[in-house]
Amino acid sequence: MDVKDKVVAWLHGQVKTPPFSAAARIEAGYLLRRLQLGEKLSMPQSRPMPTIGRRCHELRITDKNVIWRIVYRTDEDAIIIIQVFEKKNHQTPK
User: Fold this and answer.
1) Structural domains in the chain plus CATH codes
2) I need a surface site. Which of 10, 18, 26, 92 has the fewest CB within 10 A?
3) Number of other CB atoms surrounding residue 92 within 10 Å
4) Among candidates 31, 34, 73, 82, which has minimal Cα distance to 54?
């Protein structure tokens, strides 16, 4: 990790196999690494979630028969993972 890389802090949830497939876990890791490097992701990989809070977004990971969401917040020096969940309907859980 370089000095300017953002730290990833996990408040809740984890990305592991199972339940993630190996391919989905690798995709999640790749997207989180891009965020660590300061990249701003957009659709279809990431979507802003202003209803949750300022600087909150969700990563959108498509697995075999499952759609995963990783809700995160970007800070100047860190990526805060708020929640990891399987998307089962069109509404984000509260």
Assistant:
1) 7-87 (3.30.2310.20)
2) 18
3) 14
4) 73
Residues 65, 48: Cα–Cα separation, whole Å: 24
pTM of the predicted model as reported, rounded to 2 decimal places: 0.82
d(CA 8, CA 25): 15
**Helix, strand or coil for residue 24?**
helix
Find the mean pLDDT for residues 53-73. 92
d(CA 70, CA 36): 15
Instruction: Decide if 20 contacts 28 (C-beta within 8 A).
Output: yes
Whether residue 93 is predicted with pLDDT greater than 60 in this model: the reply is: no
The two structure tokens encoding residue 90: 């069109």
